Amino acid sequence: MKQYLLSVCYAAGSKQPTPAALQKIMRDVGAVQQEMQAAGAWVFGGGLDVPGTAKVVRHNGRKPATTDGPFIESKEVIGGITIVQTSDLDAALEWGRKLALATTTAIEVRAFF
Question: Which CATH superfamily is domain 2-111 in?
Answer without folding.
Answer: Dimeric alpha+beta barrel (3.30.70.1060)
